[in-house]
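Long-time lurker, first post. I've been practising inverse folding by hand and with some scripts of my own, and I keep getting stuck on stretches where the structure tokens seem ambiguous. Below is the full token string for one chain I'm working on. Before anyone asks, I'm not after the true native sequence, just a reasonable design that respects the backbone. If someone could post their per-position residues I'd love to compare against what I wrote down in my notebook.
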């Protein structure tokens, strides 16, 4: 499917809402993909001995709404640079009282409520069915949880993110339904990003940055004001940078035990 990737990066990071700057940039490159252009140029730099590629999924000017992001181009571009691990942070709302604004959630499951988004690289001629049963890399999740605790960040070790289409938010009725299912997090960009990365045998890690309670909790939890959301938003991005700097240094060079690198062996007849 791929020519041999140019090894320009080991780890890819997608920047979410408000997270447009991360590492000291050594160069910016355009990557051509069979699916069109990615959201922005890919920004390359280093953290310790790791080569890192950074891509703001909404572009640096936040001009691309979640339902218009070219997810296939973004993920393909990372793979084309040699990336084997993707870190996929996102701003998100909470669906449960105990998941508070300012908390981080290391999600282990998603529920897809989007529609019309191209969500596979495998349109034929070989039928390919990559299992999403465990969509997030267990090795990456374990490292992220330990690193968050070590850096003093309040972290939830598991969580299900329900991904809605956007750009509109949920009604109170929709939000109450999601809460009643026991799901913890709501967001607009995790799908199909995580699944596409899995199709290309990349390890993926989600870090959900909780900025507010979703609409269905109004009445049960005091509504969060706009100024409070912005304050949490900015504080979360600072905590995220701190976490990512520490996390990336802890990621081993080789992928040995997670199984993400050979999912295609079990996906075709």
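-- Answer (accepted) --
I ran through it position by position. Result:
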């Amino acid at each position: 499917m791929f020519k041999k990737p140019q090894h320009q990066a080991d780890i890819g990071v997608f920047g979410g809402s408000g997270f447009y700057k991360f590492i000291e940039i050594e160069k910016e490159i355009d990557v051509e993909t069979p699916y069109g252009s990615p959201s922005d140029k890919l920004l390359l730099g280093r953290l310790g001995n790791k080569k890192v590629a950074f891509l703001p999924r909404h572009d640096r000017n936040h001009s691309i709404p979640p339902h218009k992001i070219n997810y296939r181009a973004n993920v393909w571009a990372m793979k084309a640079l040699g990336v084997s691990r993707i870190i996929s942070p996102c701003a998100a709302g909470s669906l449960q009282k105990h998941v508070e604004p300012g908390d981080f959630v290391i999600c282990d499951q998603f529920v897809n409520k989007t529609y019309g988004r191209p969500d596979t690289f495998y349109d034929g001629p070989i039928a390919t069915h990559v299992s999403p049963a465990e969509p997030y890399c267990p090795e990456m999740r374990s490292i992220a949880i330990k690193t968050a605790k070590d850096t003093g960040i309040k972290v939830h070790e598991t969580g299900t993110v329900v991904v809605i289409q956007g750009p509109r938010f949920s009604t109170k009725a929709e939000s109450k339904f999601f809460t009643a299912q026991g799901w913890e997090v709501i967001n607009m960009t995790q799908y199909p990003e995580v699944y596409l990365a899995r199709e290309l045998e990349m390890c993926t890690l989600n870090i959900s940055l909780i900025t507010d309670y979703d609409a269905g909790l109004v009445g049960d939890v005091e509504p969060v004001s706009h100024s409070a959301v912005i304050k949490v938003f900015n504080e979360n991005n600072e905590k995220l940078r701190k976490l990512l700097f520490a996390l990336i240094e802890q990621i081993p060079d080789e992928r040995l035990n997670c199984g993400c690198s050979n999912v295609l062996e079990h996906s075709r007849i």
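A couple of notes from the structure itself: Residues 116 and 238 are 34 Å apart (CA to CA). The longest strand covers residues 203-213. Happy to go over any region you disagree with.
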